[in-house]
Amino acid sequence: MIEIPDTVTIPEAMELLRCSSSHVEHLMYSGKLTYNKQTKQHTLIDAESQNKLFDPY
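Below the sequence we write its predicted structure tokens.
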């Protein structure tokens, strides 16, 4: 099992989800990924919301 930190950056989320940055952004803006925009160029994504994408129940 992969150890996922509490927060991940967009590039890290892309690697874990195996998808493009535009898809990660779509998941963020649609509310499926919880995120916190630290600065204009630095966004942290909550790993728990990322885990929920894989757990349908």
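The CA atoms of residues 26 and 32 lie 9 Å apart.
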